[in-house]
Structures are given as C-alpha cells and as structure tokens.
Design the sequence.
C-alpha cells in the first residue's frame, strides 16, 4: 500500500517533478475559471435557472460572511468563496475513479493555509495600517506578543493538518475497505466522504473568515458591532 | 521482526485508540449541549449549529493529529529508515 504522505510523481518538467495532485489542481482551476466565465457571461435582470442557482450560492456565501464578520461581505467574497468552491470540488474529485483529491496531499493544504495566513496579514494591514496591525499583537498587553505570534502560526498549521487528515483518512479508509471487501462495499463510506468533504470545505472557509475578522477587528476601535461574531479559540 | 518496528506498530494503534477516545467523549458532550440549546431556543438553531460545526471540527482536530502521528509512525518513521 502506498504511503499517504508521499506524492505520486507523474512527470518531470525539467528538474521539477509534477505530481498528480498538481495536475488535478490545474484541471480544477481551469474548470472553475471557465465555469465562472461562461455562467456569468450573460446576466439578466430576471434570472433563469442557472443564474438563480448562482445567485443562491453567492447570497448564501454573503449571508455567512456577514453573520461571521458582522461587516459587509464584498471585500471577502472573492477570497472566501474561491477557497470554499475550490476545496469543495477538490474534495469531491474522489468520486471520479482513479483520481485522488489534491487536498489529500499535505502540500496542497499547506499552500491553501499559507494563502489564508498571508490574507490575514493583508486584510489586517489594509484595515488598520501596518502600525495598527503590528500593535494588535500587543493586545491586551505586550507580554502576549510571543503568544499572539505563535497563535497566528499554529492556528494555520492546525487548519491544514485538519483538512489533510480528514480528506486523506476518507480516501484511505475507502481504499482499505475496497481492497479487503470488494467492489461495492465502500459505497456508504464514499457517501460519508462526500459529507465530510462538504463540511471540511465549509469549516476551512469559516475559519478563514473568523481569522480575517479577528485581524480586522483587532486593529479597529471596539465600538461597532453589537453582535459579536463567534470567535473560536484555537486548538 | 525488528523490535523498533514492532513498537512503532503498537504505538500507532495506541495513539489512534486513545486519540479517538477523548474527542468522542468531547463531541458527545458538545452535541448534547447544542441539542439542549436548540430545544430551548429553536429560533437560534442556525447560529448554534454553525458554531457547533466549527467547534466539532476543532475537537476533531485532536483525533486527526493522532491519526497523522500514527501514519507517520507507520509510513514515514525516521527511526526505521
């Protein structure tokens, strides 16, 4: 049995090995980009079926972001929505025979988490300036600076290990059951896998939103926002 | 069999076993509390279940860590290389 921690190398592009996860990621990126381009090419005031489905998706996303951050969703919609859709589709590629989801590889998840880490800094700096953002590390008092810095790193780390562990364990269990019991036995497990893929994509997006909201809020004055967002203390 | 390999296998099984124990209990308590809250305030079900999902994912992470450690012991053990 192959180790789940080792990527399968498909081809070499010069000295750079291209793994199957990277190729599948490219395919997903192309499908997402082309799909969004084609679906939004002709938007009408009175939506048809396809546009109504898209609008449902976007408005649900907006509502979730508004609930979590308590702010207007427009600046975050693109990033959070893309994260959610990409991870969802990536998790569900396990349905296609012979394809392992790219999120079952540690590297893909690490890249996604690195994006979240950078975007937290970006949104924090954009909201309260470089000085304000750096000052937010010293709240409630300067003793907390090392802890706050460490928290920023460890929560991102736990984020990608969580996604990796969930998706990889799903694929792994299906592979083990299929090799032990036969062809149609792992179908209920695959159905569970779909649910887990959806929940993990949702959780990744929500956690990214919560982290960004914390960074944006941390620098701002604590006046606004009567309804506090669900802040999560990190594991 | 080399006794390092044997120990690794036993430790992997133990880490998954004990790693599943704690989060299972914790998730049970969390879901029970959420059910209680929804039963009292059905109109707050949306907020509660959203927070519950995030919290469950947080709890589950400890189990996933144990799984990752077990897989490291089995597949990427630095002592056996």
Sequence:
């Amino acid at each position: 049995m192959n180790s789940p921690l080792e990527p399968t190398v498909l081809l070499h592009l010069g000295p750079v090995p291209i793994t199957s996860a990277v190729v599948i990621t490219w395919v997903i990126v192309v499908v997402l980009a082309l799909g969004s381009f084609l679906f939004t090419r002709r938007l009408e005031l009175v939506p048809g079926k396809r546009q109504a489905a898209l609008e449902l998706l976007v408005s649900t996303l907006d509502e979730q972001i508004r609930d979590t951050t308590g702010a207007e969703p427009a600046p975050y919609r693109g990033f959070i929505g893309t994260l959610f859709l990409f991870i969802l589709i990536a998790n569900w590629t396990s349905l296609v025979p012979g394809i392992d989801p790219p999120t079952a590889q540690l590297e893909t998840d690490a890249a996604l988490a690195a994006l979240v880490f950078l975007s937290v800094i970006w949104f924090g700096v954009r909201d309260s300036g470089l000085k304000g953002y750096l000052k937010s590390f010293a709240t409630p008092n300067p003793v907390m600076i090392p802890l706050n810095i460490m928290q920023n790193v460890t929560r991102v780390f736990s984020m990608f290990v969580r996604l990796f562990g969930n998706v990889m364990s799903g694929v792994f269990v299906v592979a083990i059951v299929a090799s032990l019991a036969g062809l149609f036995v792992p179908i209920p497990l695959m159905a569970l896998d779909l649910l887990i893929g959806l929940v993990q994509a949702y959780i990744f997006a929500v956690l990214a939103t919560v982290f960004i909201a914390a960074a944006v809020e941390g620098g701002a004055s604590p006046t606004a926002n009567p309804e506090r967002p669900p802040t999560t203390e990190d594991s | 069999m080399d006794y390092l390999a044997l120990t690794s296998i036993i430790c992997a099984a133990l880490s998954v076993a004990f790693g599943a124990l704690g989060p299972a209990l914790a998730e049970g308590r969390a879901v029970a509390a959420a059910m209680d809250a929804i039963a009292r305030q059905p109109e707050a079900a949306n907020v509660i279940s959203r927070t519950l999902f995030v919290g469950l994912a947080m709890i589950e992470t400890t189990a996933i860590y144990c799984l990752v450690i077990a897989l490291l012991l089995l597949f990427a053990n630095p002592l056996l290389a």
Remarks:
- Chain B has a mean pLDDT of 88.
- Residues 18 and 46 of chain B are 33 Å apart (CA to CA).
- The radius of gyration of chain B is 18 Å.
